[in-house]
């Protein structure tokens, strides 16, 4: 067969969240960069179309006298994803996202995270569930940072969230995916997109998440904290794409026996 006649791979139709489809399955954060120029350069290098913004920590118009993140990553180019980083109860999280909706002219797509403590930054799931229920009823499209517990993920889905975002490991730890089995259980049952959020340290972590069947990956520290953030952003772009292609291609099964690449049957001598 001529190489030009080989069948084309089925096209990845993209990541659909709350009715909108994105080409990129990599979502990035906007914190920890040295300045807004580096924030923009890394975001562009990542190919990401969705960028998260910590409303309590980043100026997007609250202070008209200070530089705004939206000057570097304007909503005309990127989907801004307000998040509730720094919130430790449902009431604060709900208020923060209602403020974001006002600042962004009625914006509905948000990321909810309600933390349990300052040491682990692990999600407080009872408060997360409470906030998610309130926000969904208030008309928000809610993407939720959560534990890698398939039961909790199912409860969030039943509330009507737009996506579940289980952590791979602790926020900013760079430890990668510590419990692939739990992630697989969440993916297997999910009716909404599943995105790994927190713990990615390098490109191979992102590729593994995608090979497991995750719909996307969100990261910040792994890029912003790298020695060369812009190069790492590009590496993460390639890793997410490669992991997705490998998942669609279907890996060979693991087995405790060798299997020759060149079959013995039909050999000449």
Any chance you could write out the topology, listing elements then pairs?
Elements (H helix, E strand, L loop, with lengths): L14 E3 L2 E3 L3 E4 L6 H11 L3 E5 L14 H4 L6 E5 L6 H14 L5 E4 L12 H13 L3 E6 L3 H10 L3 E4 L13 H10 L5 E3 L5 H10 L3 E4 L1 H4 L4 H21 L20
Parallel strand pairs: 3-4, 3-10, 4-5, 6-7, 7-8, 9-10
Antiparallel strand pairs: 1-2
Helix pairs in contact: 1-9, 3-4, 4-5, 5-6, 7-9
| Unreliable sequence segments | 1-8
Count helical runs. Answer: 9
- Distance N to C terminus: 26 Å
Q: Which term fits the overall shape?
A: globular
Number of strands: 10
Kindly name the structural category.
Answer: alpha/beta
Mean of residue pLDDT?
91
Question: How much helical structure, as a percent, in the residues?
Answer: 25-40%
Report strand %: 15-25%
């Amino acid at each position: 067969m001529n190489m030009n006649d080989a069948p084309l791979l089925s096209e990845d139709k993209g990541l659909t969240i709350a009715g909108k489809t994105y080409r990129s399955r990599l979502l990035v954060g906007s914190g920890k960069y040295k300045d807004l120029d580096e924030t923009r350069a890394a975001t562009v290098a990542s190919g990401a179309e969705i960028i998260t913004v910590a409303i309590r920590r980043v100026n997007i118009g609250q202070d008209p006298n200070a530089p705004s993140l939206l000057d570097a990553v304007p909503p005309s180019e990127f989907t801004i994803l307000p998040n509730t980083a720094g919130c430790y109860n449902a009431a604060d999280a709900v208020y923060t996202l209602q403020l974001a909706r006002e600042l962004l002219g009625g914006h509905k797509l948000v990321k909810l995270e309600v933390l349990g403590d300052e040491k682990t930054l692990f999600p407080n799931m009872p408060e997360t569930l409470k906030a998610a229920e309130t926000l969904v009823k208030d008309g928000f499209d809610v993407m939720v940072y959560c534990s890698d517990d398939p039961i909790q993920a199912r409860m969030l889905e039943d509330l009507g969230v737009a996506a579940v975002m289980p952590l791979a490991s602790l926020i900013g730890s760079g430890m990668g995916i510590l419990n692939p089995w739990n992630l697989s259980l969440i993916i297997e049952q999910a009716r909404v997109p599943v995105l790994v959020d927190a713990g990615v340290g390098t490109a191979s972590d992102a590729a593994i998440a995608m090979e497991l069947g995750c719909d996307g990956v969100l990261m910040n520290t792994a890029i912003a904290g790298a020695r060369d953030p812009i190069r790492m952003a590009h590496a993460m772009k390639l890793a997410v794409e490669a992991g997705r292609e490998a998942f669609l291609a279907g890996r060979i099964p693991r087995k405790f026996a060798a299997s020759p690449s060149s079959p013995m049957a039909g050999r000449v001598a």
